[in-house]
Write a structure and sequence with these properties.
Elements: H1 2-37, H2 44-62, H3 65-86, H4 101-106, H5 108-113, H6 115-131
Length: about 130
């Protein structure tokens, strides 16, 4: 009985962390959209370091690599779609003149299977990993 309760609490903690990181990604997308509208440079390396720095305490709190992978994967669909929204673009807009290394590597995937399918797959995998 006690074990089931702690498993429940641990699962709820992971879900709360997942939701917090979804909100963090929305906020970071809003900041980048503002910078783009102001013609300011986006420092992708610094953004990556900040995000990774946010993941470190989550790993120490949970000791769960699946959750960390989940939080890395959820960034792509949530951040990209939110950035498009805040930039007043179509939600499935893909920028081909990006300076982001991640975008340059991964842009070819939605070109082949579609933006929503790709992002839905990533989001679903991320949810599943959160629950492991």
């Amino acid at each position: 009985m006690v074990d089931a309760f702690f498993i429940y609490l641990y699962t709820m903690l992971k879900i709360v962390i997942f939701i917090i990181f979804v909100l963090i990604n929305i906020g970071l997308a809003n900041i980048d959209a503002y910078k783009i509208k102001q013609d300011k440079q986006i420092k992708h390396g610094l953004n990556a370091l900040i995000y990774l720095a946010l993941l470190v305490p989550m790993f120490y709190a949970t000791q769960n690599w699946y959750l960390i992978l989940s939080l890395l994967l959820v960034r792509i669909p949530v951040f990209n779609t939110s950035l498009n929204y805040f930039r007043d673009k179509e939600l499935d807009y893909i920028s081909y003149n990006t300076t982001s290394i991640t975008d340059k590597i991964t842009n070819w995937i939605p070109d082949r299977i579609g933006y929503w399918i790709y992002h839905s797959i990533l989001f679903t995998i991320s949810l599943i990993l959160t629950l492991l």
